[in-house]
Design goal:
Structural class: mainly alpha
Largest sheet: 3 strands, antiparallel
Order of helices and strands: HEEEEEEHHHHEEEEEEHHHHHHHHHHH
Number of helices: 16
Shape: globular
Length: 491
């Protein structure tokens, strides 16, 4: 993060929201407004042995710290780069006998950094850890119990020779983590793998239809001695034209929910009432709750029954996915779609959720033609609901394009991959691993499309070879997780 980057934004008091950030110059779609390394970050407890503790990339073989046997790294380069943050943690884990939970580890890393550098403004930071909101006063009884348990666990782990902090300050740090912990994803952006604190990002307020997006970039640690070396960071990117003086905003939650549900979620997780234009005017709610029109318009009672059936089915599907019963998931999706399609509109969120699950699981089961049909309907609905430069839309279009390619639908597949590439160039940028992967797919499908148009026989020969080489792959085994959200909330 450079000083110049932070001079392009300014902290100000946003009416009804408290502190916010506004632009000091014009930004165009795809521009990086600022990049920020983590103040502190940790890998989730369940993934500590498969994700690098420095760059957060998921790897098959990792080097383990020879002292604490807990931390894992891509290689010696990542291990050396992470030593400053791991040094105190390493000795504390050895003394404690085991590693504590992710929340305790993150709080400890924050306080070891404060011990090293003080609690004032760090280089490139617009606000200190002390000034971040903790919302402890808004915690419910259950959250207060969890906070008390975390503080006690922290005190048991924290070394006696380290700087000692008061109970109130320790509670403040845990409150900051609860409200401001940013979800870190793997290098493909598909799985949440950790949580970090980014003080400047914390100043960007929410809007359900934002003008910015936040992307996590794992960096390029392999090129440590070259001009291509980059560190792990978040990037705040413009989604639309931003003029000097405009407030910068991101969405804390997925837009694919009616305004009432989004407001409930925001109130529960972030303790504020959303007053954005889309919530106040319930913009796009009609699309998300759409039903069939015309002579076949269903009765209100029929709609209610189908919606309830959809909710019940989604719960059953979640259980089946956890157990890996994917053929059962497909069966439930087909049954639900049979009931939904004569009643719900093409943009209804319950229909889109089932279509999304069906296309993903069928792709995994290599039933590509049926998966492609569902993926196309899902993308058509998403395009009418999401912001045209939404990152989740781009990822969904990319998956649909890959599914069509596997189904042998080369023209539709190439078209979808080109659409996804245009979106991800703005949301992720040309140097992000996902965009680079997509560029390879785009070039490959363009070449195949030309071959198909010129000589079908040669095309199928080439396609067979490409499949053997696995140039393009579907997603791995379906996960029960949704796409990584912006901020991490402890379950």
């Amino acid at each position: 993060m450079t000083k110049g980057e932070m001079e392009s934004v300014e902290v100000f008091t946003s009416e009804g929201k408290g502190r916010g950030l506004k632009a000091q110059k014009e930004f165009l779609p795809g521009d990086v407004i600022f990049a920020e390394p983590a103040y502190a970050a940790v890998v989730f407890d369940s993934l500590t042995h498969v994700v690098c503790h420095t760059c957060f990339k998921r790897q098959e073989r990792l080097h383990r710290c020879g002292q604490c046997k807990f931390a894992h790294y891509c290689d010696r380069t990542c291990q050396r780069a992470g030593w400053l943050n791991h040094k105190n943690e390493c000795s504390a884990i050895k003394k404690h006998g085991k590693a504590p939970t992710e929340n305790i580890r993150l709080a400890a890393r924050i306080m070891w950094k404060i011990e090293r550098e003080g609690s004032g403004l760090s280089e490139g930071c617009l606000v200190s850890i002390d000034d971040l909101q903790n919302h402890v006063d808004n915690f419910g009884e259950e959250e207060k119990k969890e906070l008390h348990a975390d503080v006690q666990s922290f005190l048991e782990f924290w070394p006696s020779q380290s700087q000692q902090f008061g109970m109130q300050y320790i509670s403040h740090v845990f409150g900051v983590i609860s409200c401001n912990g940013f979800t870190l994803s793997d290098q493909r952006g598909l799985q949440a793998v950790g949580v970090g604190i980014f003080p400047n990002l914390c100043q960007v307020n929410h809007d359900c239809w934002p003008n910015c997006t936040v992307i996590f970039n794992n960096g390029n640690h392999e090129a440590v001695r070259s001009m291509f070396h980059t560190q792990m960071r978040i990037e705040l990117r413009a989604l639309s034209k931003i003029s000097p003086g405009d407030e910068l905003s991101v969405s804390y939650v997925d837009f694919l929910n009616v305004s009432e549900e989004r407001r409930k979620q925001l109130k529960k997780q972030y303790y504020f009432d959303c007053a954005c234009e889309h919530c106040k005017k319930q913009i796009k709610d009609d699309l998300m709750l759409a039903v069939k029109q015309g002579e076949s318009k269903p009765s209100a009672e029929t709609v209610k029954e189908v919606v309830q059936f959809s909710k019940d089915t989604l719960e059953k599907i979640n259980k089946a996915r956890i157990e890996g019963l994917y053929h059962e998931v497909v069966k439930m999706c087909r049954e639900c779609l049979k009931k939904q399609e004569p009643v719900l509109g093409d943009t209804n969120i319950y229909l889109l959720r089932i279509l999304s699950i069906a296309s993903e699981v069928l792709s995994y089961l290599q039933m590509f033609e049926e998966a492609a049909d569902y993926a196309k309907k899902m993308v058509d609905g998403y395009m009418k609901i999401y912001h045209p430069n939404n990152a989740q839309l781009g990822m969904a279009v990319m998956r649909a394009g890959v599914t069509h390619w596997h189904a042998g639908l080369i023209e539709a597949g190439h078209g979808l991959i080109c659409k996804a590439y245009a979106i991800l160039l703005i949301t992720h940028g040309p140097s992000h691993p996902i965009t680079k992967d997509l560029e390879v797919m785009r070039v490959q499908t363009e070449m195949e499309l030309r071959m198909f148009q010129q000589n079908e026989f040669m095309y199928y020969k080439m396609r067979e070879a490409a499949l053997k080489n696995q140039k393009i792959q579907v997603m791995p085994e379906p996960s029960n997780e949704t796409s990584p959200g912006l901020f991490h909330k402890k379950e």
